[in-house]
Structures are given as structure tokens and as C-alpha cells.
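User: My instructor asked us to take a sequence, write out its structure as C-alpha cells, and then describe one feature of it. I'm not sure where to start. Here is the sequence I was given:
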Amino acid sequence: MKAVVIGAGFSGLSAASFLSKKGWEVTVIEKHSMPGGRARQIREDGFVFDMGPSWYWMPDVFERYFEQFGENRAEYYHLKRLDPSYKVFWPDSESDIPADFQKLKALFENWEPGAGAKLDAFLRQAKYKYEVGMHDLVYKPGQSVLEYLNVDFLKGFARLDVLTSIKKHINKFFRDGHIRKLLEFPVLFLGALPENTPALYSLMNYADICGGTWYPDNGMYSIVNGMEKLALELGVQFNYGETVSSFGIERSSIQKVISVGTDGRENVYSADVVVAGADYHFVETQLLPKNLQSYDKKYWSTRIMAPSCLIYYVGLNKKLPGITHHSLFFDVNFQTHADDIYKRKIWPEEPMFYVSATSVTDSNAAPEGCENLFFLIPVAAGLVDDNDILRAEYFEKIITRFENRIGEEVRKNIIVKKTYGPTDFVNDYNAFRGNAYGLANTLRQTGILKPKCKSKKVRNLFYTGQLTVPGPGVPPSLISGEIAAQQVVEQFGS
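Assistant: Let's start with the prediction itself. The C-alpha cells for your sequence are:
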């Protein structure tokens, strides 16, 4: 049996490996010259930039992934826990967020007397959500509500807080603004407004505080290399530099894809099954005739998207003393930027931003004596006026604040600079509305309410990635590939 997987991002690599493990003959078609998708890599003048994901959370998900194949993650890449986990710049101060839990409790206590004990109670609830959410719920294919109708789940449903917002949940425990913003930031950057995100996602706080923030040696691309290496060991065939442009459809009483065609080549790949790790909306609307699309134009127009982002890859010819690997600049109005993303859907006037300085941890990320910086501004999905002038204006806004807060001159020391924005997400990944992270994690877009991982109208077409279950992020992408492969095996066998 032959399976064609479209896209060599995390979910495509995962789906391909699980199918190959089950005995399928698997070919992965990837439009770029390397694997990784949004997690590709840029190399220039001795600087090595991870293009997309930069946070390594939920290490247990990665360990489990390799163990599924009888392998040890450490044989593919090594990890270092970061301490501090990250730094936060507030309007009038800054805070290192320690990896040590007792030190973190002391910091919370300093902000709000009694908050240390409250953090214990908050995390007890978050731990339950993490264990249920990340060890059970995320592995469900989201095909039917019946998947959730078991005694244990129903007994614990109230403890998952799916009907309460995470904002309300956090506010129930803490009054201090620093604590509230710190606990809200994971969902703000990766999903939706805290007031529209189920409190179930406090599991992200457990992942942050208890699971820790880690860094793979030689960057996040080490994960991609490790997953590709494993896939090759399993017998997966990779064809890079080919763009899927058409499906051959067998038109009978049961519609199915029988071949996949690519642009610029004469290659046509026969297929018993197709798993699309490319953008769900693109595959539906551009590769399938209208009568075979699972979702219509109205459906897609009503989807609430997680943010897009504006990214700057910057290489400096000097080191910056005192900076940390991860820094969050919350030195402007938190709510205003959030509303610009999700309510007004405009370019933020005064953006929050994030900085990753991998060269603080990894000497291979930059030439000796140099610094590797990654700046990210979350912006609304669907913005169309992305241009070089606007990107230059936003860089000036954030670099001025960056220089002022770290007390170092940066502009005159830039020797490498590249930008990446919403139009690049569209051009490189056919990303629906230029999104970077997929669908927002709202209650109405969770589980069975996400686009299905199995086509409703094409018998052998399956989907994986951030627009289907379980959702955005690197760990969910690994799981998404596993879910898609399981659905294939359940329907067609191994």
C-alpha cells in the first residue's frame, strides 16, 4: 500500500514515520529544499537562525514520540534546560523567571503576599488538565462526540474548566498584574484572547512552570533533523523541491485520490492514501473540485485564527552582556496589543514583542564574538498591507525599546538582517490568511469542532497539522501526524 504525505513539517514527518512503521510505502513531497516547514533554518555568514518555533516545552511529548519507535530521543539530539526560563521586561522593571520552582514561588510572593501558596493550588489544577489534556484528549481524532463519552472523562469534566475562560480562572487566584500577564502570555501568543480561551489551557502554565523551558543543541532544527533521520531509517522516501499542484480523482460511487501531481516535473505519484500536511484550506480549495470540499467558503470565513507574526533575523558583530535566551517585552499595554490582534485586526500601534538570543546558549548559532537575535511581533491574521516600508518602521519601534532596556547600542552592529511576515507565510506555506499558528484555541474550535482530520467526501484523503486536531504548536503537530496515521491504519489496515 502506497501513502503520499504532502509536506515535511513536524506533522508530515510524524505521519510518514508512523505509516512507515505500519508497513506502508511512504513518499513525502515537500516544496522546499529541506524538511521542517515553518521550522526551517537560515544560514548566512556564520549565523544559524531557526525560522519559526523557538520554545521547547512539553519534553515528555517528544520523549514519547521517539519511544513509539523503540528509540531514545537523546540518540537524535540533546537538551539543556534554560535557567532563567526567560526574562520579562515590564513598563518599569524587569524579571528573570527562574526555572527553580521555590524561587518562582518567592517571586510570586514578592509581587503578591500569599501568591506562593496560591500558585501551588493553581498548578494542582493545571497538572490534572495537563495529564488529561496531553495524555488523553489530544490523541482523540475529533471525529465524533462519542470519543469523549467514557466514565472517567465525564467524572472529571468539571475539573477541566472548559466552560470558564482562562482569564477568569487566573483572576480567581491572583490579583497582581505581573502574575496575571505572566500566566496569560502562552495563550495570547499561540491562540486567542485570554477571555475567549478555555481555562483548560492552564495546562500550558503547567508545561511552562513544571515541565520547564529547554533548548536542543544546535537549535530547534535539531528536532527536524532527528525526525527526518528516524523517518529515513524507517524507509520513508523524501522528494524535496516539488510543489503539489493536482490530484488525480477516481470518479466513481466512492470518490478517492489515485495520484498526486507536482509542478515543474513530470512526476505523478500513485497513491492508495494521501495525508495532507500542507495548509488545509489550500488543499481543500485549490486541489479539490468544489463538490469534494468538506467545508464551504462561509465556513472558512467564520474561522477565528491565531496570530500571524512579523519576524526579524538579526546578526550582530558583538556580544550583548546580560541578555537571556528568551525575553518577553511586556513594556507596553498588554490588552491594547491583544485587542489589535483579535478584535480590531489591525497592525499594533505599540507592539509587545519577543526576543530569542540562541547564541547566549549555543556557540554554534553565531560566529565567535557575535550575537544571534530573533525578534517576533504577534500580529493579526489576514493583514494584507505587509510591505518593506512597514517592516522597517516596526523594526525601528522595537529596536529602540530593545536598546533602551538592555542599555546597549545595537543598530550600528547589525551585519545580517532578514525579515519574514504574513505575505511570506502565504507565499511559502499557502497559509490561510497568512496565519503562523493555525486556528485560535477557542471553545468553538476545539476537538470535534475543528476541521476534521479525515475528508468528509474523499475516502482516502486525510489531514494533519495545525488547522486540524489537536491544534497549534510543535508538540501538537507531532501528535497530529500520529492521529492521521492511526486513522489511515484503522480504515485501510497496515
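For the description part of your assignment, you could build on this observation: The first strand starts at residue 2 and ends at 6. Try explaining in your own words what that tells you about the chain.
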